[in-house]
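User: You have something folded?
Assistant:
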Amino acid sequence: MVSIDTFKDRVAVVTGGASGIGRGIAEALIDAGATVVIADVNEDGARATATEIGALARRVDVSDADSVEALAASVVEECGRVDIVVNNAGVGPLVTFDEVSLADFHWVIDINLWGVVHGMKAFLPRLKANETGGFIVNTASVAAILPSEGTAAYGASKAAILSVGDTVDVELRAEGNTTVGIATLLPAMVRSNITANSRQRPGFDADNDQTEDFQVESRVLEPRDVGNMVVDALRTGRRHIFTHPETREAVAARQAEILAGFDS
């Protein structure tokens, strides 16, 4: 089991770190002793947050592989290493499949899924090269496991993130790597800017936006609470990080429904 016993002298990169869950994770990592680089498409926001919490700031477009590779290179050049990568940048318009446009569906996949793939491709070789290894945390969602109305694009991207992370973890173990870990964060409702960010999508129509209508009733966590959970998971080597224990029964019921397919 791969874990991180100390965060002192560790360098962490958090995409989507200017606000929301990303900022919460960045704050928790800093308090644990890590040097943190916040990377966000909103450069002004990243710089403002970095100043407030004591981080470094970079601009990155996670949907662009070259931009993510440049981020990785610049962090290693300035900080000398990278140990923890949190692929967190994401968007989430909640629109029924009938209503979601192809442009919006592509937009969600390009940021949520390709952002994670680009991050892993850029940083994984660097983590493997570390004598002490490192850890990648990919932010998915409990929607990866629990489908609900309006989440066709969002849930698809998050389910793929879960699959990619688990598959790469299996491959690392198969090649005998015991120093690099992969974890997937599966949050339910967390206070963030994801709804506001969804209004930046190509097909946004202010007169017909239904995003608020799809918001489910759930306990809403603060981003910093989630950040503490991530740091704890890194310390213990946990590979799947759930934020809301109350979703356990629904996840179990979903898995039972799938397993019932064997009975028929």
